[in-house]
Write a structure and sequence with these properties.
Elements: H1 2-7, E1 11-13, H2 45-60, H3 80-96, E2 100-105, H4 118-134, E3 137-147, E4 156-165, E5 173-181, H5 187-196, H6 214-219, E6 226-232, E7 238-239, H7 247-253, E8 256-262, H8 270-279, E9 284-290, H9 299-308, E10 313-318, H10 325-339, E11 347-350, H11 354-366, E12 370-375, H12 384-393, H13 400-408, E13 412-421, E14 425-434, E15 436-438, E16 442-446, E17 454-457, E18 461-463, E19 466-468, E20 470-472, E21 476-482, E22 494-497, E23 504-505, E24 507-516, E25 521-522, E26 526-531, E27 534-543, E28 548-549, E29 554-561, E30 566-567, E31 573-578, E32 581-591, H14 593-605
Parallel strand pairs: 5-8, 5-9, 9-10, 10-12, 11-12
Antiparallel strand pairs: 1-2, 2-4, 3-4, 6-7, 6-8, 13-14, 13-22, 14-21, 15-20, 16-17, 16-22, 18-19, 18-21, 23-30, 24-29, 24-32, 25-28, 26-27, 26-31, 27-29, 31-32
GO molecular function: GTP binding; GTPase activity; translation elongation factor activity
Region (Disordered): 1-73
Domain Tr-type G: 172-400
């Protein structure tokens, strides 16, 4: 199907086709040779000899001709059957891309930039617009470039077009972006400018709507986790509070939604920042660096956390209006140096034009090593549009097949926040990890301090501050639980289906790497463990095969929670810390309650110099 739509029409999608055709270029660039012939990988010797003769004969000619473009490679006046076939393929590509796809017109399957004449390009775009209207989508021309051939007086063009579904029944594409960076780097101000649609006055006016507590307004420092939304409609236009009064209006008008998770920058609130990264499952991370201070404070630590949790990260250098050009360039050079270090192994990409923003968005989603860098100002608005273009084109990391597989599983909702709302009752906020949750559904929540799960009923669902009837895997929302006793709930619990038999554990094993420790890491050491939405102090029961660990060493470690049991998943990412001690890993095995009790009793009997776990 991919070969037919791209080879037969001269149109390819960057979101889905590259996995099958690795030769398709991710960005528009000039042809590598003037003759523009299409090279294939597997040829016999006789065919190679014939091609060499053709090359020699063509080299003797004085004028070069562009490659002949067969009529079927153009989207010009297709037959009714052909049009229906193309529309069906477009619908399939939109489903695969979760509502959006990028088409390249005038580009062959192998990435050769053939180009179309002015008239053919207009006709092809008109046909693509008709196809989009048939499947309920809009098209947006991202960029257009000319392809020059010596003998062709009429220049040929290639175009890159974004096709996006018109929003229906709240089924918009939702991407979560965690905002990291040192204190006073301009994170909340930048989000205020993006979501409110008004520039800052230089004294932090734009960030006031984001703060949740009085002391945050007084100090200007974020200490809690807050959420802000930025929408894009089917035509790629920004939808924010400057055009809409409420979040519900933004959701109704948007085909794509960017949910920003504003995290704290001060080192004092590091546990809150880590909780936001591990619990809310961000798709991407935006590291904000102040141009006048450079890499300072918690910048390196936040960069390391995002990389340890394998969250794709891009960088925004803010406050460029306060600095000379040389200062901004020095900060960018510092960032490039840090990103290229062996521990990072990133490829920095400075975004300076809309063309760079399109290329950065496409390559960033395909390769984890690409790290785009933006330089902008929230006061003057310099280069702010480049960041909006980047967010508009940024594709999701998961495709529709992965989404469907998660939805087929049993319901599992992570409890991250707990509220009491007047006339509503107890409300929990979090992320649906798997399955589908509907209004009126009956679930069980736990584990409690005694290790039990309690029955409850979901009253209503709100997503992005607007009512929603159905919640699907990967989406964040708040659920109303009615008169359910709030004192029985806590952060770190899960709400699961009645059909599921959840396993709770006091004790678990994890394969870890010790990132840093001042002395030696050994049995009896206590650390704060972060696994998803779980955050609790745990004791190191034993190290398998070793008596102690030093910085940079790996081992399988047995941890035991000290306060209450938790619900964990096999293979879940783990991060632990205590002071300057930090480590990462993943859960390898869970010990049921009975086994954990025996292990705990045995561990208490052992002396400090007892035997090592085998």
């Amino acid at each position: 199907m991919d070969a037919q739509i791209s080879g037969g029409t001269g149109v390819g999608t960057t979101a889905n086709i590259r996995s099958n055709f690795p030769n398709v270029r991710s960005n528009l660039q000039g042809p590598s040779s003037g003759n523009g012939r299409r090279m294939t990988s597997k040829k016999t010797r006789s065919k190679k000899g014939k091609r060499r003769k053709r090359r020699r004969s063509k080299k003797t000619k004085t004028n070069k001709t562009p490659p002949y473009l067969p009529p079927e490679l153009k989207l010009v006046n297709p037959t009714h059957y052909r049009f229906e076939h193309l529309a069906t393929q477009l619908k399939w590509r939109l489903q695969e891309g979760r509502g959006e796809a990028v088409y390249q017109i005038g580009v062959e399957d192998n990435g050769l930039l053939v180009g179309l004449s002015e008239g053919d390009m207009r006709a092809s775009l008109k046909t693509l617009r008709r196809m989009a209207e048939k499947v309920g989508a809009d098209i947006t021309l991202l960029r257009e470039r000319e392809v020059d051939y010596d003998s062709d007086r009429n220049c040929r063009k290639i175009s890159e077009v974004l096709v996006r579904k018109v929003p229906d029944d709240q089924q918009f594409l939702d991407l979560r972006v965690a905002v990291l960076g040192n204190v006073d780097s301009g994170k909340s101000t930048l989000l205020g400018v993006l979501t409110q649609g008004e520039l800052d006055n230089g004294r932090g006016r734009a960030r006031l709507n984001l703060f949740r507590h009085l002391h945050e307004i007084q100090t200007g420092r974020t200490s809690s986790i807050s959420f802000e939304i930025l929408g894009f409609n089917s035509k790629g236009e920004v939808v924010n509070y400057s055009d809409s009064r409420t979040a519900e209006e933004i959701c109704e008008s948007s085909s794509k939604m960017i949910t920003f998770i504003d995290l704290a920058g001060h080192h004092k609130y590091l546990k809150t920042t880590i909780f936001g990264l591990t619990s809310y499952c961000p798709d991407f991370a935006m590291l904000v660096v102040s141009a006048n201070t450079g890499i300072a404070g918690t910048t390196r630590e936040h960069l390391g956390l995002a990389m340890a949790l394998k969250v794709p990260i891009f960088i925004v250098v803010s406050k460029v209006d306060l600095c000379a050009k040389g200062t901004v360039e020095r900060t960018v050079r510092q960032l490039e140096h840090v990103l290229k270090l062996p521990g990072c192994n990133k490829v920095p990409m400075l975004v300076a034009s809309p063309d760079d923003a399109v290329t950065a968005a496409q390559q960033f989603a395909q390769s984890s090593s690409i790290t785009p860098i933006f330089t902008l100002s929230s006061v003057s608005g310099e280069s702010l549009d480049l960041l909006k273009v980047f967010f508009n084109i940024l594709p999701p990391l998961s495709n529709s097949k992965e989404q469907e597989e998660l939805m087929q599983q049993l319901t599992e909702f992570q409890v991250d926040e707990i509220y009491t709302v007047p006339d509503v009752g107890t409300v929990v906020g979090g992320t649906l990890y798997s399955g589908v949750c509907r209004e009126g559904e009956r679930l069980v929540v736990g584990p409690t301090d005694e290790g039990r799960f309690l029955r409850l009923k979901v009253g209503s669902i709100h997503r992005n501050r607007s009512a929603c009837r159905v919640l699907r895997a990967g989406q964040a929302a708040t659920l109303a639980l009615g008169n359910f006793d709030r004192s029985l709930l806590r952060k770190g619990m899960v709400m699961v289906s009645l059909k599921m038999n959840p396993t709770i554990c006091w004790q678990f094993e994890a394969a870890i790497i010790l990132l840093f420790h001042a002395k030696t890491f050994r049995r009896g050491f206590q650390v704060t463990v972060h696994v998803g939405n779980v955050r609790q102090t745990a004791t190191v029961e034993c190290l398998h095969g070793k008596e102690e660990l030093h910085t940079g060493e790996r081992a399988v470690v047995c941890f035991r929670f000290i306060k209450h049991p938790e619900y964990l998943r096999m293979g879940a990412k783990l991060l632990f810390r205590e002071g300057v001690t930090k480590g990462i890993g993943h859960v390898t095995s869970l010990l049921p309650d009975s086994i954990a009790f025996k292990s705990m009793s045995k561990a208490r009997e052992l002396t400090s110099g007892g035997p090592v776990c085998k």
